[in-house]
Specification:
It is built from 5 helices and no strands. It has 134 residues and is mainly α.
Length: 134
């Protein structure tokens, strides 16, 4: 299947994953740098040093997830079957985290839950599976 015959929804998902990945990686770099500054220059107590380390960890995870998002997005645009599987796994994890958030009493991730559900529903449609040779 060439890009001209690729379903529009796959193109949209691929582009959105790339954009989200770049934003996530950039925010991760900011968090990594901010955490490093907090830990090395501003921190005056053990708690502040620990907070700086936690911010750096969150930044590193954001960078890894961002790079993964870019790779998955490019794979979606190229109709690679591994990107279909990877996106299903990532969206499943997002749903799991959103459900944990809901159970804990916060409803902040309800939108993420809904969006991930729609993405999984779309990726499991027969015509989309065919595009990824599934």
């Amino acid at each position: 299947m060439n890009p001209a015959s690729r379903p529009v929804g796959i193109t949209v998902l691929g582009i959105l994953q790339i954009v989200r990945g770049v934003v996530s990686a950039l925010l991760g770099l900011v968090a990594l740098g901010g955490g490093a500054i907090l830990t090395s220059t501003i921190a005056s107590s053990a708690e502040e040093t620990l907070a700086g380390g936690a911010i750096m960890l969150i930044g590193a995870v954001s960078i890894i997830l961002g790079i993964s998002g870019v790779i998955l997005g490019i794979g979606m645009l190229k109709l690679k079957s591994w990107s279909w599987i990877g996106t299903l796994i990532v969206q499943g994890l997002v749903i799991l985290m959103a459900l944990v958030d809901l159970i804990s009493g916060s409803g902040l991730n309800i939108i993420s839950l809904a969006i991930s559900g729609v993405i999984i529903f779309y990726l499991l449609k027969p015509e989309v599976k065919v595009a990824f040779r599934r």
